[in-house]
Specification:
Distance between the termini of chain A: 30 Å
Largest sheet of chain A: none
Strand content of chain B: under 5%
Structural class of chain A: mainly alpha
Shape of chain B: globular
Distance between the termini of chain B: 56 Å
Structural class of chain B: mainly alpha
Oligomer: heterodimer
Radius of gyration of chain A: 27 Å
Helix content of chain B: over 70%
Largest sheet of chain B: none
Strand content of chain A: under 5%
Number of helices of chain B: 9
């Protein structure tokens, strides 16, 4: 006899092993909080978005700081373009995230549901990559500005020997590397833990298509 | 939310709650975890209920959301997967019903099913619930051919466990 047929026969007979929940039990359950990964992912993405938005908009809170940034750009047009671009990117990501969350539905097939969750996670990932890249690109620019605007720093750098200059550059590169590496590791760990099971199951599902 | 609407939902859920229990039975190993998953599935069903138009049977709709929650949305904690109480308690069969060999075989089968990965478990579950391959493939989002091929592999796997 087919093993599964044996199991099927028994499966039917063992129905209702668990105590059935009453109407009251079930109604109470509706008021409990969900602990699904989609909800956790949602909170994490909101926190991330907020973190980077705050970081991006700190200059606008302090007029002094903003004036400094403005002068660092040298040209009003460049400053305005970059500000509009930054705002635009933030709104774009908010829109993409919103759309992506709306797409997550438990009534889809398992595969589509998994794909939609992974797509949402990817949007957050791209946002983080964008911000880390922006930081990376800003560093040489802000370094040269600090040197230019600080004559003492400029003159001491001029007096550097080649070795000293090399050490300074390497130190900056190492610090930037560590900071960016830290961020990257943090995200890898965060999403790695959260989506471990999902990634594993998605791979299993994909394997069926080979 | 409208209270009539809520009453309607709870009545439907109460009537078909066995489906959710069966999903929980397959994907958890102990009483607490069973109840945790049951609650999460209930919340997901309730959240999706406004989209339920009644074209699909409520029970069919429950299979999909139940499995999706168990496979994709539910986070298993270490506490939940640490114990292995299921086979001894949940699936004990009385001696009058089966002879020793069959009981032993069933025990081994349930253990084997519990060891399958989440996707294979879903396939077996839908099969045990007498769903046809079209429904299985639609629920999981794979082709019918792949569902059949995979099901045969699972059968072989189970056979090998029983007859090493």
């Amino acid at each position: 006899m087919d093993e599964l047929e044996l199991l099927k026969g028994h499966w039917k007979q063992t129905e209702n092993k668990h105590k059935a929940f009453s109407t009251k039990d079930l109604t109470n359950m509706l008021h409990k909080k969900s602990s699904s990964i989609v909800k956790t992912l949602f909170y994490i993405s909101i926190a991330e978005l907020a973190f980077w938005v705050i970081l991006n908009f700190i200059p606008f809170v302090s007029p002094d700081y903003e004036a400094k940034i403005r002068s660092a750009f040298g040209s009003e047009a460049i400053y305005t373009t970059i500000s509009v671009f930054t705002f635009g990117i933030v709104f774009l990501f908010i829109y993409l995230l919103y759309k992506s969350y709306k797409n997550i539905s438990t009534t889809d097939s398992t595969k589509v549901l998994m794909q939609n969750i992974l797509k949402t996670r990817k949007i957050v990932k791209y946002y983080v990559i964008y911000n880390l890249t922006a930081i990376l690109l800003t560093i040489p620019f802000s370094l040269s500005f600090s040197i230019k605007s600080n004559p003492r720093l400029a003159s001491s750098i001029e007096g550097f020997s080649n070795t000293q200059l090399l050490i300074s550059i390497l130190t900056v590169v190492a610090i930037v590397g560590v900071v960016l590496g830290f961020f990257w590791l943090f995200y890898k760990l965060l999403y790695g833990i959260l989506l471990k099971q999902l990634n594993h199951n998605y791979k299993e599902l994909k394997k069926l298509e080979v | 939310m409208d209270s009539t609407y809520k009453v309607e939902f709870v009545a439907l859920l109460e009537k078909h709650q066995n489906i959710v229990h069966k999903v929980c039975r397959l994907y958890t190993n102990n009483y607490d975890a069973h109840n945790d998953l049951f609650q999460e599935i209930t919340i997901q069903l309730w959240k999706a209920f406004p989209k339920f138009r009644g074209e699909a049977k409520f029970s069919t709709w429950m299979y999909r959301i139940g499995l999706n929650t168990a496979i994709t949305l539910y986070r298993k904690s270490k506490r939940r997967i640490a114990t292995q109480e299921f086979d001894a308690v949940e699936f004990r069969i009385s001696a009058e019903e089966y002879d020793d060999t069959e009981e032993q075989q069933l025990k081994l089968l349930y253990q084997a099913v519990h060891q399958l990965n989440d996707i294979d478990k879903a396939l077996v579950f839908l099969y045990l619930e007498e769903k046809n391959y079209t429904e299985i493939s639609e629920t999981l989002g794979i082709t019918e051919v792949n569902a059949r091929v995979k099901m045969n592999r699972v059968k072989t796997k189970l056979r090998n466990i029983l007859n090493p």
